[in-house]
Amino acid sequence: MEDSAGRTPGTRVTARLRELRFDAGSLSLNLIATVGRRPASPVERLDGVERLRSWCAGVGLLLRGEDATPQTVESLHALRAAAHDITTAVLHGRPAQPGAVELVNRRAQTEPPAPRLSLTASGVHVDGRCAHLSADALQSLIARDLIALLGDPDRCSRLRECDSEICRMIYLDIGRGWPRRWCSMQRCGNSAKAARHRRRKAGALGGPEERSA
After folding, report:
1. Under a CB-based contact definition with an 8 Å cutoff, are residues 26 and 53 in contact?
2. Is residue 55 part of a domain?
3. Residue 127: CATH number of its domain
4. 132 three-class SS
5. What is the model's pLDDT at position 194?
6. Strand pairing of 62-63 and 132-133?
7. Which one of 96, 107, 148, 172 is CB 3.0 to 4.6 Å from 143, fit for a cystine?
8. Dihedral pair phi/psi, residue 140, rounded to 5°
9. Distances (CA, A) of 23 to 20, 36, 47, 53, 69
10. Is 93 left (phi over 0), alpha (psi -120 to 50) or beta?
11. Please, which pLDDT band fits residue 4 given cuts at 50, 70 and 90?
12. What is the pLDDT confidence band of residue 2, given thresholds at 50, 70 and 90?
């Protein structure tokens, strides 16, 4: 059943749900995380030029002013879709779409700026990732990050998909203990615990009548 806006119940888009996420564990995974609530009710978080600038700032990159355009946003959407297809294929043991692999390889071909060291009053500073990037260089960094991630057996083995059916965010589990079930304990983890508590409470309130129904 849908409401008048065409949304299914329980898919209200809050300000928090539209927040950009920078906790996925890598540059390419942070791009994938610009869509929330996969696959139930996808929420677009990278929906314009201002969001593009905010995302670049959040991952520590600067985009050239002339490249902060709707066309760059569209190109990143295409790269994101390919990256998502490939990572979910790896997670679920299925073949990736050939077109997705070809697109990532093609975007990786642009040579990104070489990293540089700068002298500062307190020592040295690595500023290669802070250079103003062209749209092609930005996408090359993202594509190369994904390739490096999937090519590292240890990091690749730490890829996870959030247990929440309305999240499914892909992230790197870098903890040393038990594997993480949720993208964030503060978000999906707490929500899952609260839902279990509500179910237990509802069952307890049902009493004998509920058990005999």
Report:
1. no
2. yes
3. 1.10.3300.10
4. strand
5. 53
6. parallel
7. 107
8. -65, -45
9. 9, 13, 19, 17, 25
10. left
11. very low
12. very low
Q: How far is CA 74 from CA 58, 70, 141, 153, 208, in A?
A: 19, 6, 17, 31, 57
Cα dihedral: 174, 169, 50, 82 (round 10): 100
Note whether 84 and 147 are same-domain residues.
yes
Find out whether 83 and 142 touch, Cβ atoms under 8 Å. Answer: yes
Least confident of 13-27, 85-99, 196-210: 196-210
Tokens of 100: 């997705």
Q: Which two tokens stand for residue 109?
A: 């071909």
Contact, 52 vs 67, CB < 8 A? no
134 neighbors 117 (Cβ within 8 angstroms): no
175 CB contacts (<8 Å, ≥6 apart)?
none
Bridge partners (DSSP) listed for residue 44: 35
Rounded Cα distance between 14 and 100, Å, is 31
Residue 138 has pLDDT above 50, yes or no: yes
Cα distance from N-terminal residue to C-terminal residue, the chain: 27
What is the domain range of residue 192? 182-213
